[in-house]
């Protein structure tokens, strides 16, 4: 191979030959190499990052106990003795009458829960050297199923649960100032929602009337999303162009939220979803979901799910302690209050005293939403105008060592045997704003044969199935065959219909 002594020896033919190497339209040979040229490595960190929450405190805490076949787990509960209240005193040499005992037969039906997914052959091949896509699918399915189980533990409402029925007719009102609603006659329609209904609904996407699932083979099935029958329409006349519309409805037992539809007759559109039994609107939305052909059937029960805490509390005949706050002013509702200057919350005191008066037990945990932990902290710190202030200062931190912000992490229950006990406050990811769940995890009764007051029974706990190949993709599902018996629903306490603010 011949070399050249200097650039003067380059002929036009040689230059054109170099250009030919780069190809027509490529970078000219006389340019330098920059980052933008593209001769750079690809700094891809192996394994995809999982950046989503998997918060399942109840699922993690509840004992998992194997069942013994059958379609349900069953038990007998002795709920009362000496129900006729015979006195203990008897004459010399005599006997007393026979006491009466109340026994109830209980059951909790097994349900299968689970989710499915797939990975195509191409996705599996493309992920080589980066991530095991099929393993990633299996892990994601397990986590997603756990999240769904937690939601059912909180608010599942089976066909043995409660029915919302027909939503009561709203009581509307109007004001002539403060809004932008034009003069007309408007209808107000309300639809009560269970926890599942609240969880599945948004103002933008609407409230589902029935849910349809398409299976991998193309067949479908439906389930109820947690909605009541809509109320009758209540009409309200507004005047002027600056009107507002508000309405209240009688609180529905078991409802976690209410969907409000407003418009002229036949054109009622979804305006708000509230977690109290009232609303107020300043402007009218005419493009959201219409309810004209929807919500004519009670779809509050979902036969595919087991009963959760809310259903054990709200089903007919439940011994749970329920404190539904008063309706209050439409759109404003009733807030948590502190009236005794002792940093206690009135609505909680009512529930805690009922625990003692009725069952001689004390709850040990309160599950709340982010809204309620904020309101509880604010109410207690305000203390009915006599603020409770605790200042933690680090002597070594200097003048700027004071930490802002406060959090109420426990609540003192004064109604407990042997003295006061502390109730732990926990934020729960599935708690609807406006509702607080109390629970007593242990029954202090002698020889009660209840090692776990509530537990997860399973005929088969989490398992994964790899389905036969019918397409060029790997299809898989994660499932569990479980139920949640609650042996003493009297351990559940609910404060609901709480409005935001303090």
Describe this structure as you would to a colleague.
The protein has 502 residues and is α+β, with helices and mostly antiparallel strands. It has two domains: 57-72 and 103-162 and 305-394 and 403-496, phage-related protein like fold, CATH 3.90.1690; 171-281, no CATH class. Helix content is 17%, strand content 26%. The chain has eight helices and 21 strands. The chain has helices spanning 12-22, 57-61, 121-126, 133-155, 195-200, 309-314, 346-359, 370-382; strands at residues 64-66, 72-81, 101-109, 111-120, 171-175, 184-193, 211-214, 220-223, 234-238, 244-248, 257-263, 269-274, 278-281, 321-324, 365-368, 410-413, 421-427, 436-439, 456-466, 473-483, 492-496. The radius of gyration is 32 Å and the shape is globular.
Secondary-structure topology with pairs:
Layout lengths: L11 H11 L34 H5 L2 E3 L5 E10 L19 E9 L1 E10 H6 L6 H23 L15 E5 L8 E10 L1 H6 L10 E4 L5 E4 L10 E5 L5 E5 L8 E7 L5 E6 L3 E4 L27 H6 L6 E4 L21 H14 L5 E4 L1 H13 L27 E4 L7 E7 L8 E4 L16 E11 L6 E11 L8 E5 L6
Parallel strand pairs: 1-19, 14-21, 15-17
Antiparallel strand pairs: 2-3, 4-20, 5-10, 6-9, 6-11, 7-8, 10-13, 11-12, 15-18, 16-17, 18-21, 19-20
């Amino acid at each position: 191979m011949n070399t050249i002594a200097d650039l003067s020896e380059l002929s036009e033919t040689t230059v054109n030959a170099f250009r030919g190497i780069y190809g027509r339209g490529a970078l000219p040979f006389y340019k330098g190499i920059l980052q933008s040229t593209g001769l750079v490595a690809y700094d891809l960190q192996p394994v995809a990052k999982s950046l989503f929450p998997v918060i399942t405190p109840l699922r993690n805490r509840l004992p998992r106990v194997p069942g013994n076949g059958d379609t349900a787990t069953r038990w007998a509960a002795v709920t009362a003795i000496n129900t006729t209240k015979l006195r203990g005193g008897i004459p010399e040499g005599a006997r007393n009458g026979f006491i009466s005992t109340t026994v109830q037969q209980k059951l909790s039906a097994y349900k299968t829960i689970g989710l499915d997914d797939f990975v195509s052959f191409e996705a599996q091949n493309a992920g080589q050297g980066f991530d095991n896509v099929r393993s990633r699918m299996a892990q994601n399915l397990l986590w997603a199923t756990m999240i769904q189980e937690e939601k059912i533990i909180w608010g599942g409402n089976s066909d043995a649960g409660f029915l919302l029925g027909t939503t009561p007719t709203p009581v509307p009102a109007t004001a002539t100032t403060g809004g932008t609603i034009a003069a007309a006659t408007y209808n107000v329609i309300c639809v009560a929602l269970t926890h599942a209904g609240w969880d599945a609904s948004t103002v933008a996407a609407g409230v589902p009337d029935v849910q349809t699932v398409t299976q991998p083979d193309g067949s479908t099935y439906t389930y109820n999303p947690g909605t009541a029958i809509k109320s009758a329409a209540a009409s309200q006349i507004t005047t002027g162009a600056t009107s507002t519309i508000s309405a209240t409805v009688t609180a529905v037992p078991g409802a976690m939220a209410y969907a409000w539809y407003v418009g002229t007759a036949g054109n009622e559109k979804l305006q708000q979803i509230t977690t109290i039994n009232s609303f107020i609107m300043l402007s009218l939305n005419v493009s959201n979901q219409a309810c004209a052909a929807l919500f004519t059937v009670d779809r509050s029960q979902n036969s595919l799910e087991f009963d959760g805490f809310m259903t054990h509390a709200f089903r007919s005949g439940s011994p749970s302690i329920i404190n539904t706050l008063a309706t209050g002013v439409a759109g404003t509702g009733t807030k948590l209050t502190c009236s005794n200057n002792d940093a206690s919350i009135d609505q909680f005191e009512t529930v805690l005293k009922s625990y003692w008066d009725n069952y001689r037990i004390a709850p040990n945990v309160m599950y709340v939403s982010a809204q309620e932990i904020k309101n509880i902290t604010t109410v207690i710190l305000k203390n009915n105008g006599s603020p409770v202030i605790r200042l933690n200062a680090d002597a070594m931190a200097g003048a700027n060592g004071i930490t802002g912000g406060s959090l109420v992490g426990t609540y003192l229950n004064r109604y407990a045997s042997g003295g006061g006990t502390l109730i732990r406050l926990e934020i729960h990811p599935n708690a609807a704003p406006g509702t607080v769940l109390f629970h007593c995890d242990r029954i202090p009764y002698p020889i009660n044969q209840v090692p776990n007051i509530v537990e997860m029974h399973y005929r088969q706990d989490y398992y994964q199935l790899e389905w036969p190949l019918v397409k060029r993709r790997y299809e898989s599902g994660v499932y569990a065959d479980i139920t949640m018996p609650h042996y003493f629903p009297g351990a559940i306490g609910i404060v609901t219909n709480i409005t935001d603010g303090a």
